Amino acid sequence: MNGDKLLGQTGEWLELMARAQAVAQRSQEQMVAKATGGEFSVVDAKSVSEAYLKAMAEVLQNPMVAAQYTQRLWLDWATAWQNAWLGKTEAPKDKRFRDKRWDADPLNRGLRDSHLALEAATEDFLSRLPEGTKDSLRVKFYTRQFLSALAPTNNLMLNPAARERFVETDGESLLDGFRNLVEDLERGDGRLDINTTDASAFEVGRDLATTPGKVIYQNELMQLIHYEPITETQKKRPLLFVPPWINKYYIFDLKPENSLVRYMLQQGHSVFLISWVNPTEAHADMSFEDYMKLGPLAALDAMGKATGEKKFDILGFCIGGILVTATLALLAARKDKRIATATTLATMVDFTDVGELGVFIDRDRLLVLREHMKEKGYLENYHLQDMFSMIRENDLVWSFHVMNYLMGRKPPAFDLLYWNSDSTRLPAAMLLWYLEKIYIENGLRQRGHLSMDGTPIDISKIDVPFFVLATKEDHIAPWQSIYPSTRLLGGDVTFVLGASGHIAGVINPPAERAKYGYWTRDDYPTDPDTWLEGAEFEAGSWWPVWSEWMDAHDTNEAVPARHPDKGKLKPIEDAPGSYVRAK
C-alpha cells in the first residue's frame, strides 16, 4: 500500500470514528431512556432473565441431564475437529457455510463443524424443557440468537471469504465495512438500521406500484385505487384487495412481472385496492373497528357507487386478511350478502400457537407498550421490523452483517426487501386492542367474543366460498395456525399451502421456470401435518389455481371494461396516490 493511499485511509478512519462517537452518544441516551421506562424495546430483559432462571431451576432438578449434555457437547466438538483434520466431513446444507472456502482446509472445516455441533447439542438439550410454556419458548429463542451471533461466519478473523477480501483490498474492505456500519447507525439515529437493499434503485410510482389507475375515493385512513383495465371486457363482480397496514400496499403491485394486481387485470378482473395511510399522532384513537368501517366497508360502498354493482369479491393479506375475516363475520351477522367470494393470504384465525412471535407479546408487555405509546399515539415502524428480523436472524440480520460490514459491500437491489423496509407506524388504539383481543385472547375463533360496531361476530357464520393460502416456511403466520380456517369458517373452504415464506411464497408469479410450488388436497383432516402427508405437490405458482377457483365461482356474463375515469366517482389523483408515499 503506497503512502498516499495509507494517508487517505487514515483520514477517513478518523472521520468515521468521529461520526461513530457522535452516534454512539445518541445510542447511549436512547439506552438510558429505555432503562427508565421512556422507550419500548422489542427485547424485554426482565422476562428473558426470569425465563432463564426458571430453566436453570428445571435443569438443576436433574443434574444428570446437564452432565450428559456437557459430555455430548465435548465429544461432538472433538469429533468435529478430528474429522475436519482427517478430511472426513461433508459440506452441510446450512446457507451460512455455502461458500466453498469453508471446505477448503482443516481449520475452516473445524470452525464450521464444531459450531454446528454446538448448535445441535444445545438444541437437543433444550428440547427437554417443558413444552408449550412461554418461558421455554424464550429460552430456546434467545439461546439460538446467542449461538447464531457466535457463528464463525460473523467474525472477520474466522470467515475465510472476509479474510481473503481484506487481503485482496489492502484493508479497504474493512474501511468500507466500517463506513457501512456508521451510515446504518446514523440512519437509525443511534439504532442499528441494517441496510438490506439498494434503496436508490427503487421509487414508488417509477419502479414499483406502476400499474395505471386512479384514486377514486379517500378518507382519513385509506385511499381507494381503481386500476385501468387491460382486457376489453371484465368480470361482472369487482375485486377488492385489502393489504396489511403494517407495510405499504404495493406488495400486490411490485414490478410488472411479479404484480398480482396486473395478473388479475390480465385475467379480466376489475381490480380495486386499499392504500392505507401511514398513521401519525392524529390517528392515535383509530381502532380496529375504524379500520373496518373506513377500510373495506367504505371501499365496498365506494365500489358500488362507482360501478353500480351489488356483489363483490374480496382478498386480504396477513392482518388485512384478519380484517377481511372479521368484516365478513359482521356482514354475516347483519345478513349482508355483498361478498360473493373471499380470499385470505397468510392469515391466521387461530392464535393458539403463534410460533416464535409469542416470545415478544404477553399482557405484561402490553402494559409497557401502552405506556410507551401514550405520548406519540403510535408504535414506530422499526419495532416490528426488528421483531420479524430476529425470528429469521441468519437470513435477515447476520447475512447482511457479513455482506455489509465484514465484506464491505453494499446489498443488491431487491424489490421485496425494499418493500419490507418501507413499513408504517401503527395507531395505539388499534394495536393494543388487536394484541389483547385477537392475539392474546384468541377472540376471532371464539363465537361472540368480539363485537364490531355493537354487533357480536362469529366467523363460523361466514358462508361464502373461501380460498385460504398459507406458506410452509412462514415465520410470521405459521401455516399450522392458518389451517384451522378449514374447520372454523362456515362456508366451503379451499386450502392451498405454498412453498417458501410469508412474502416470497405469496408473491410467486407464473413463469417459465417456476421458483416455488404448492400443495393441495381435497379433504381436510383435523391435524395439519396429516393433511400435508396426503397432499399433492405441484411445481409452479398458486396464482393460476386461485384464478381458476375464482372463475369456477362466477357464472355471470362479462361486462365492458370499467375505466376509473368513466365511473360515477370522480378521480382524485393518479395511482399510486399520495398516502403510499408518506414516510
What would you say this structure looks like, in words?
The protein is α/β, with parallel strands linked by helices and 583 residues long. The protein has two domains: 16-187, no CATH class; 213-380 and 425-508 and 542-581, Alpha/Beta hydrolase fold, catalytic domain (Rossmann fold). The protein has helices at 3-35, 45-60, 63-86, 106-126, 134-150, 160-168, 172-187, 260-266, 288-307, 319-333, 363-376, 381-391, 393-406, 415-421, 428-440, 479-482, 485-488, 528-534, 543-552; strands at residues 213-218, 222-227, 233-234, 239-242, 271-276, 312-317, 339-345, 378-379, 426-427, 451-452, 455-456, 466-471, 493-498, 517-520, 536-539, 559-560, 573-574. Helix 2 packs across helix 5 (134-150) and helix 9 crosses helix 10. It starts with a helix and ends in a 9-residue tail after the last strand. 37% of the residues are buried.
How many beta-strand segments?
17
Let me know the average pLDDT: 93
- Would you tell me the structural class of the helices and strands? alpha/beta
Low-confidence stretches: none
Kindly provide the radius of gyration, computed on alpha-carbon positions and rounded to a whole number of angstroms: 26 Å
Share of residues in strands:
5-15%
What distance separates the N and C termini?
Answer: 44 Å
The 3D shape can be described as: globular
Q: Biggest β-sheet, characterized?
A: 11 strands, mixed
Number of domains: 2
